[in-house]
User: Which sequence fits this backbone?
């Protein structure tokens, strides 16, 4: 018996080695950290294919080595005339809601035909969309690349490049933080702290810093992931450094430091701007707690303990009302509804309810008509925002992502499927679903001008859901 098992192990090892060396088998980890995701293809072949694809798109200007400009395609969809922009991570309010227009919900059984598809570099950033362009940040060989595309055609318009190659075993290579668009400028944060302001039309560098160097901070195990936040004339980022460098604000025009506060280790969340308890504030989830900071100087307004044992926080907080916010985390943590009570110019945080029925891991929840929808680890669930009661739990979508639009949920699964689900507390009602892109997909989708944009570390695509 023992000899037979040993022989089987050797045989499996030989087959695995053959698949890896001859057929370029790639083994990636799913969001549970255990189940492997198998795919084929040499990374160098992928980069070569990407480079050949971009060379087929004719250049019109001679640009410096760090910036390459491309002519957009002649054919242009009417999206360029609309002012429907998706300027931030998870949308303009960072809440995962698309409210600009109604969307088509009668998806065909065979799935939506892509408006365009393109190869793309590595990483887990999402897209932002503005003025007919879409922007993201990618890993291409040993460089991080901020990229602008024509949203109607997928044609690459310009790139800005710097030499950095972050990689770790579970997540793979590439930058994690979604850029931010504001008033024709793009603010991009790389995996190792390179922080750049760019002209969104041309890719010209306006200023550059490194937030880890500024804050004397160590990088996180899975790299910088917090998307920059525009607040008035500042841009707020999360270096996570000691001696008052956990949260930092820079002048968005010049890159000069305005203020820096707290000593918390940073998490994998992005800062948000919110008004809670009648006080406008920067909302930050660190590795230890949730805090509200006064925008003018970063002064602490309130805090609430929120610590996960294994991994610093990942999921975004969700604003539920003028005084309440929802928090969630996986790794056994669960969720809580927090009430903020005003006391002069400060706030006190208290727990309204707690539950273990919603554990957001890599994704964040959305609020629709008084109900919270999100991935409880890998299964979609709905809970009552007022009571925390579980309404239903169904639909195994892996550790994917979701947005809400027109009383529906747009779910991008861990395997790259786009699924449309009714946002109703009655029961789980899946309307349609199809394979949108291939491979492990942890990137958040983006929506603007009636389009859904999706990407992972190898492929990107756009789908028209306008009515």
Assistant:
């Amino acid at each position: 018996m023992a000899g037979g098992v040993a022989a089987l192990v050797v045989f499996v090892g030989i087959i695995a080695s053959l698949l890896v060396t001859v057929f370029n088998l790639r083994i990636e980890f799913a969001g549970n950290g255990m189940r492997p995701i198998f795919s084929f293809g040499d990374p160098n072949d992928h980069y070569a294919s990407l480079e050949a694809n971009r060379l087929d798109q004719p250049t019109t200007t001679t640009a410096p080595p760090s910036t390459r400009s491309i002519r957009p395609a002649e054919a242009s969809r009417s999206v360029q005339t609309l002012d429907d922009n998706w300027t931030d991570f998870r949308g303009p309010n960072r809440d995962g809601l698309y409210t600009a227009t109604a969307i088509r919900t009668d998806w065909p059984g065979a799935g939506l035909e892509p408006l365009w598809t393109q190869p793309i570099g590595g990483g887990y950033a999402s897209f932002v969309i503005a003025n007919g362009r879409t922007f993201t940040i990618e890993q291409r060989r040993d460089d991080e690349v901020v990229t602008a595309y024509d949203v109607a055609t997928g044609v690459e318009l310009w790139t800005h490049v710097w030499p950095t190659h972050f990689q770790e075993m579970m997540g793979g290579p590439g930058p994690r933080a979604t850029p931010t668009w504001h008033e024709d400028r793009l603010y991009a944060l790389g995996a190792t702290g390179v922080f750049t302001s760019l002209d969104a039309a041309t890719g010209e560098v306006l200023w550059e810093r490194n937030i880890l160097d500024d804050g004397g901070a160590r990088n996180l195990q899975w790299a910088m992931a917090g998307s920059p936040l525009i607040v008035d004339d500042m841009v707020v980022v999360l270096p996570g450094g000691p001696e008052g460098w956990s949260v930092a604000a820079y002048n968005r025009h010049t890159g000069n430091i305005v203020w820096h506060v707290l000593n918390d280790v940073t998490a994998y969340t992005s800062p948000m701007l919110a008004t809670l308890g009648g006080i406008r504030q920067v909302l930050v989830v660190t590795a230890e707690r949730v805090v509200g900071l006064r925008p003018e100087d970063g002064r602490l307004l309130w805090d609430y303990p929120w610590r996960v044992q294994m991994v610093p926080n990942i999921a975004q907080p969700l604003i539920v009302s003028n005084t309440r916010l929802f928090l969630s985390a996986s790794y056994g943590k669960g969720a809580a509804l927090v009430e903020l009570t005003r006391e002069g110019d400060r706030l006190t945080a208290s727990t309204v309810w707690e539950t273990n029925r919603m554990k957001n891991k890599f994704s964040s929840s959305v609020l629709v008509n008084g109900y919270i929808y999100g991935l409880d680890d890998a299964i979609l669930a709905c809970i009552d925002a007022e009571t925390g009661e579980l309404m239903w739990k169904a639909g195994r979508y892996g550790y994917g992502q979701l947005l809400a639009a027109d009383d529906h949920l747009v779910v991008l699964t861990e395997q790259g499927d786009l699924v449309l689900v009714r946002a109703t507390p009655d029961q789980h009602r899946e309307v349609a679903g199809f394979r949108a892109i291939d491979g492990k997909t942890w990137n958040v989708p983006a929506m603007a001008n009636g389009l859904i944009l999706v990407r992972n570390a190898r492929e990107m695509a756009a789908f028209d859901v306008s009515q």
In short: The chain is about 10% helix and 40% strand. The domain at 42-464 is CATH 2.140.10.10 (Methanol Dehydrogenase; Chain A). The two ends are 64 Å apart (CA to CA). Residues 8-14, 16-23, 60-65, 70-81 have pLDDT under 50 and may be disordered.
